[in-house]
Each structure stands twice: as structure tokens, then as C-alpha cells.
TrEMBL record:
Membrane-spanning ranges: 12-34, 75-93, 105-128
Superkingdom of the organism of origin: Bacteria
UniProt keyword list: Membrane, Transmembrane, Transmembrane helix
Pfam family, one: DUF2752
Cross-referenced InterPro entries: DUF2752
Protein name as it appears in the record: DUF2752 domain-containing protein
Length: 134
């Protein structure tokens, strides 16, 4: 008789990608149908509320909503860094999920240079958008 109490290895291997896909579909649906600009459902940025300055992520929710509706100019105005980094994230996310099966690819994509470059770009964006009002 087969033990039904423990999940089968094949099912367990697919559970994380399936859960991630479900969460992604729900999040895309929420951001597509609900406008963060006018909905109290979405939280305000605590950094901006406390300091009056924009953090690197300020406007990201509105930018995602605009991108899902094909409005790239509005998304750019809300958060240009998100618009620029979306294709990069689209490559990096699957690599993150495949890191155990393809560790060499993971190490090449998430190398020290990538981490420091990301840190520098986000920091520069944070400063520039508050100094020049981007």
C-alpha cells in the first residue's frame, strides 16, 4: 500500500512554481482592475509620508497599473526605474527559481557585479528623483 500522508516528490517539486504562478496571476489581476491612484486598498509609501521625499519604489504601484494597460508614458512618469528594470526582472526571476537546477547560471546572473550595480543604480535613482524631481 502506498503511503498517502507524504506528498510525492514530483508534486513537491512543482508546488513552489505553481504557488508562485497563482500569486502572480492574482497580483496582476488586482493591479489590472484596481487603480492604485484612487483606491484606499493600496498602502501609501511610509518613507514619503514621514519625510516628504520619494523612495526608489515610489510610484511603482501606479506604474504597474499603467504598464498592464499599455500606458508606457504614464508608467514612465510614475517610476521610470521600474519601467527600465521590468525586462531585467523578467529574466532574473526565472533564474532565481531555477537556482538549484542551474547553479552556474544563477552564480553568473547574481554575481557580485550585479549586486553592486543594482545597489548603485537604485541609490542614484533615489537621489536623482529627489534632487531633480524625476
Amino acid at each position: 500500500m502506498e503511503d498517502t500522508r507524504t506528498p510525492k516528490p514530483r508534486l513537491r517539486a512543482y508546488s513552489l512554481p505553481i504557488a508562485a504562478a497563482i500569486i502572480l496571476v492574482v497580483a496582476v489581476g488586482v493591479y489590472f482592475f484596481i487603480d492604485p491612484s484612487s483606491s484606499p486598498v493600496f498602502p501609501k509609501c511610509p518613507f514619503k509620508v514621514m519625510t516628504g521625499l520619494q523612495c526608489p519604489g515610489c510610484g511603482s504601484q501606479r506604474a504597474i497599473h499603467a504598464l498592464l494597460h499599455g500606458d508606457i508614458p504614464s508608467a514612465w512618469r510614475f517610476n521610470a526605474l521600474l519601467v527600465i528594470s521590468a525586462p531585467v526582472l523578467a529574466v532574473m526571476l526565472p533564474v532565481q527559481f531555477m537556482r538549484r537546477r542551474h547553479p552556474q547560471l544563477y552564480l553568473k546572473v547574481f554575481c557580485t557585479a550585479t549586486i553592486w550595480t543594482t545597489f548603485a543604480v537604485v541609490t542614484a535613482w533615489w537621489i536623482a528623483r529627489n534632487v531633480w524631481g524625476w
